[in-house]
C-alpha cells in the first residue's frame, strides 16, 4: 500500500498530539507556568534582556571595558536565575521534551532507512541497499561520478 504525503502528515499530527499529552510535556507546561507567575524571575529576565541590549550597543561602539562589566552583570544574573529550583525544573523538562522529540525523529529516520534497505533486498546490518549488495552498476558507491 502506498501512502500519500497527506496521509503521512495526518499521522504526524496524531503523533504530535500524543507527544503533547506525555508526562514530559505536562511537566514542562507546569514549570513554565510557575516561571511566568513568579515576579522575581520575570524581573530578573527583564534585567538580563535590558543588559543584553546595552551589551550590543557597547559592542557596536567598541566600548570594551563597559561591555565586559555588562557581560559580568548578565552572567551573575543568569547564575542567580539558574539557581532557582523552578528554573532548574523548567530547563530539565525542556531537555526531556527535546530528548523525546529527538528519539522520535531518529526512530522515524532509522526505520525509513531500514525499510528501504529491506524492501530492496539489502543488508540492514551493513546499511546497504539491494543494488549495492548485488553489485549493480549505477549506484553511487561504485565510482559513477555522482560525488
From TrEMBL:
InterPro entries: Bact_com_dev_regulator (IPR052767), Biofilm_formation_YmcA (IPR016783), Com_YlbF (IPR010368), YheA/YmcA-like_dom_sf (IPR023378). SUPFAM superfamilies: YheA/YmcA-like (SSF158622). Residues 128-147 are annotated as: Disordered. Coiled coil: none annotated. Residues 138-147 have a biased composition (Gly residues). This is RicAFT regulatory complex protein RicA family protein. It comes from Bacillus salitolerans.
Amino acid at each position: 500500500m502506498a501512502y500519500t504525503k497527506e496521509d503521512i502528515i495526518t499521522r504526524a499530527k496524531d503523533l504530535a498530539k500524543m507527544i503533547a499529552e506525555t508526562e514530559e510535556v505536562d511537566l514542562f507546561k507546569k514549570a513554565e507556568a510557575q516561571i511566568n507567575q513568579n515576579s522575581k524571575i520575570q524581573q530578573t529576565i527583564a534585567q538580563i534582556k535590558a543588559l543584553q541590549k546595552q551589551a550590543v550597543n557597547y559592542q557596536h561602539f567598541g566600548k570594551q571595558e563597559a561591555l565586559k562589566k555588562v557581560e559580568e552583570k548578565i552572567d551573575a544574573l543568569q547564575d542567580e536565575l539558574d539557581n532557582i529550583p523552578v528554573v532548574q525544573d523548567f530547563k530539565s523538562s525542556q531537555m526531556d521534551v527535546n530528548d523525546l522529540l529527538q528519539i522520535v525523529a531518529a526512530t522515524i529516520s532509522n526505520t525509513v532507512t531500514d525499510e528501504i534497505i529491506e524492501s530492496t533486498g539489502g543488508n540492514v546490518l551493513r546499511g546497504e541497499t539491494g543494488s549495492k549488495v548485488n553489485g549493480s552498476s549505477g549506484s553511487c558507491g561504485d565510482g559513477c561520478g555522482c560525488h
